[in-house]
Every structure is written in structure tokens, then in C-alpha cells.
Write a structure and sequence with these properties.
432 residues; mainly beta; Jelly Rolls; 2 domains; 18-stranded mixed sheet; seven-stranded mixed sheet; 31 strands; 11% helix; 50% strand; elongated
């Protein structure tokens, strides 16, 4: 055999080995890459969370750059909100954004938008497969205004909430209650319950419960600072009946039953549920003794989240005293005289000249007009107690003695998720 033939045979052998080794390398690559790719797909594949926006008061707008804006009105069913949409309120409106698990059953968080607020939804996802170890994620941009975020207790998978503002970012890593205020100059981040990582200008600040941070334009976060002081304890009923006194049922007719007052799970959170089915008047409630001096307080913000599921009486009855939900605060005025601030809420019925009145006519002044909430929908109410009293010609409180949450009427069903009374201390001017 010639040397040329031997060379050709040798080259063929080399080529065969190269093909064999190359095929084996491809096989190994596929064998290794396939489970890695499958694992990455199982870990990282997501599907959207369900977001529903509903109006609390006024008109809630949902904007999308690719379609016409949508409007949500009080009492209407919640409208679905997708990623890359903006939820807005004007100066006279407020709204709720409820974050559900993808199946639409479990409420993971709720975002309360106050007046003149804009929130852009950057992302809202949950892992597609149970094998994934990633958390559920909600990322929102608070462009301006005031926002309150309540993150429910964890179930099978935690929810990681990120709130971006023009001045920085806050990551809410634990269930709890958080509030944000964004103006052109600053961002205020307050943690009532939980923990948050606040970042600005590449600097990280961790906030724990009852702490606040401030982020100015082009500046790192400053804090921890003192937040508004909550005069109420266990307003979210997470500690069940701690600090609350249950009042006895008052039933007008001896042949009629009382109802039920209990702490149950409401929309993924602990809440106070009061139900009664009967004829004739009945009322019940809970009371908490506060006994706090508020002489140097600049504002007293009363906040409550609730829903009136049903009521049989129209408005608050014929004398306005049988609201399905009543808030009552007992206080001493600046002269030490005992006074009562009371606000009633109802869901159904119409106020007419010949029908139920718009105030409690049998109650002592000040008489505040009843507030209507959409039937069966979660509703939040916020008012400055000092400003409301001054508007009616009454002086500011000197001492808050107690607060009561009362349900009354004939047949009714009410859920109270949480209640707070936030005292903001008056700033002390230093001498020049």
C-alpha cells in the first residue's frame, strides 16, 4: 500500500474520531443543558397576579398608553388592572387596589390610594409552577400622592412588594402596614408594622415597626425618624381581643335574638365581624380605653377599613341613631369638659325630606352627616378629628379617653379590618 493511501486512511480515522467525539460532546451538552433549562423554566416562568381597582369615593381612573382610559365609580365591581397601567385619583377621589393570587381567591395585599395620587404597576407576577422557590412580586411606581399598603400574612408563598418613587425605592419584605407620601421635594416612608429596606443614592436604610424615613431629591434616606403615633393598640385585631373590651348586646325586644361578634379572617386578614338577624333594635360593640393627653398634637387622623355587607334599615333609621357602623370617641375639651365625637356609616337607603335623616338627631352636637359606603365593598375612611371639630365650630380635644366601634340596627352584617388614631406632634420651633 502506498504512503498516499495510508495518509488518506489516517485522515479518515481522524475525521471519524472527531465526528464521534463531537457527537459525544453535543450529547453531553444536551444531557446537561436540558435539565438546567427545564429547571430554569420551572423556577422563572411566571403568570400575572390578579389586580382589581375599585373606587372608594369619586372617580377612579385607569390609564393605559395603548387604549382609552377607564373609569371606576363607587359601588361598581372592581376593574382588572394589568401591568404597565396607571391608577389615578383626582383631588376629590380615593380608591382601592386589591392584589389577589392568580386564582382570584386569596387577597395578598391592598393598596389604598388617597386623593391626587398616581400609581403605575410595573410588575405583578407569581411563579407558574409550585416547584419554584421565587416569591410572588408586586412592583409599583408611586408617582405622586399618598399611598397605604397592607401586606397580608404569608400563606404558601411570600409576596415581595417594591415601591419606587421619584426619590428612591422601598422593599417591603414582611407582612405589615406601610404608608408613603410623595411630593415634588421628598418621599416619606412610614412602617407601622413590618420591615422595609429604603434605598436612595446607593445608600440603604432598614426601617422597623414604628419608624419613618425621608428621602429628598438627590439625597440618601434620612432616618429612622419618629412617625405619627398610633394611640390605638391592636387596631388590626392581630392579637385577637387584646386591649379591646367587648360590650354586651343590647336587644330591644325580649323575644328577639342577639347576634354574633367575633374575630375572623376577612380578605386574608384578621377582622372584627358583627352580624345580627332579627326584628327591633339591637346594638353591640367593642371599646378601647386610650386615656392620652393630646394637648400638643397638631392632627389626629382617624382611619378605618371596613365593609357593610348588609343592613335592613334604610340609612341609619328614622332618627339617624341606628347605623350599621358607628365610631364614637369620648374626649375632654380644652376646658376639661367631657365631649363625644361620633360618625355613622351606612350602605343602603336614601336620605329624603320625609325619610331617614342625614345625621343622628337624638345625639348631642356636634352632629356629623352620615357617610355612605358601597354595599358589600371594602371601604376606607380617613379624617382629621381636630379639623372636623373645628369645621363644626368646636375646639380641639385635650385628652382622648376612649374609642368605641358600634354596630346597630335591626338586621346587619359588618366587617372591620383595622382602625387607627394617628397623632402627629406639633413641631417645636427652636429659639434663634
Amino acid at each position: 500500500m502506498s504512503s498516499i493511501s495510508e495518509a488518506r486512511i489516517h485522515k479518515r480515522e481522524q475525521l471519524a474520531w472527531l465526528v464521534l467525539l463531537g457527537g459525544f460532546a453535543v450529547f453531553l451538552s444536551i444531557a446537561i443543558a436540558t435539565p438546567l433549562l427545564i429547571r430554569a423554566y420551572l423556577q422563572n416562568s411566571t403568570r400575572p397576579l390578579l389586580l382589581l381597582a375599585q373606587s372608594n369615593q369619586g372617580i377612579l381612573s385607569i390609564d393605559n398608553v395603548n387604549s382609552l382610559p377607564r373609569a371606576a365609580l363607587p359601588g361598581e365591581a372592581g376593574q382588572a388592572v394589568s401591568q404597565r397601567e396607571t391608577v389615578l385619583t383626582d383631588a376629590t377621589a380615593s380608591g382601592l387596589l386589591l392584589v389577589y393570587a392568580a386564582e382570584g381567591e386569596e387577597v395578598l395585599a391592598r393598596l389604598q390610594l388617597y386623593s391626587a395620587t398616581a400609581v403605575y404597576i410595573s410588575a405583578a407576577t407569581t411563579p407558574r409552577f409550585r416547584l419554584s422557590k421565587r416569591p410572588q412580586e408586586l412592583t409599583a411606581d408611586l408617582l405622586n400622592g399618598r399611598l397605604r399598603v397592607v401586606v397580608a400574612e404569608e400563606r404558601e408563598r411570600p409576596l415581595l412588594v417594591t415601591i419606587n418613587t421619584p426619590h428612591g425605592t422601598a422593599v417591603l419584605r414582611q407582612p405589615g402596614e406601610y404608608s408613603f407620601l410623595v411630593t415634588a421635594e421628598t418621599t416619606q416612608v412610614t412602617v407601622q408594622e413590618g420591615s422595609a429596606d429604603v434605598r436612595g443614592q446607593n445608600r440603604l436604610l432598614t426601617l422597623e415597626a414604628i419608624q419613618r424615613a425621608e428621602i429628598a431629591a438627590d439625597a440618601p434616606p434620612v432616618g429612622p425618624l419618629s412617625p405619627e403615633r398610633n394611640l390605638l393598640h391592636n387596631g388590626s385585631f392581630n392579637e385577637l381581643w387584646a386591649r379591646w373590651t367587648r360590650l354586651s348586646w343590647n336587644v330591644e325586644r325580649a323575644d328577639q335574638p342577639a347576634g354574633e361578634i367575633e374575630i375572623v379572617e376577612v380578605l386574608g386578614e384578621n377582622g372584627l365581624r358583627v352580624t345580627r338577624n332579627g326584628e327591633g333594635h339591637a346594638d353591640v360593640g367593642v371599646r378601647q380605653v386610650i386615656n392620652q393627653d393630646v394637648a400638643d398634637v397638631e392632627s389626629l387622623l382617624l382611619e378605618i377599613d371596613f365593609r357593610i355587607v348588609s343592613q335592613s334599615l334604610g340609612v341609619c333609621g328614622m332618627v339617624g341613631s341606628e347605623c350599621p357602623l358607628i365610631l364614637r370617641i369620648e374626649y375632654d375639651d380644652q376646658n376639661g369638659n367631657p365631649q363625644v365625637w361620633q360618625q355613622g356609616f351606612y350602605a343602603s337607603g336614601a336620605i329624603t325630606p320625609d325619610g331617614p335623616p342625614d345625621v343622628c338627631v337624638s345625639c348631642p352636637p356636634p352632629r356629623f352627616p352620615h357617610v355612605q359606603a358601597p354595599p358589600g365593598q371594602l371601604f376606607f375612611y380617613r379624617a382629621d378629628l381636630i379639623a372636623e371639630l373645628q369645621r363644626m365650630g368646636f375646639g380641639a380635644p385635650r385628652r382622648i379617653k376612649s374609642i368605641s366601634v358600634i354596630a346597630s340596627g335591626h338586621s346587619f352584617a359588618v366587617d372591620i379590618l383595622d382602625i387607627a388614631l394617628l397623632a402627629s406632634e406639633r413641631a417645636v420651633m427652636s429659639a434663634p
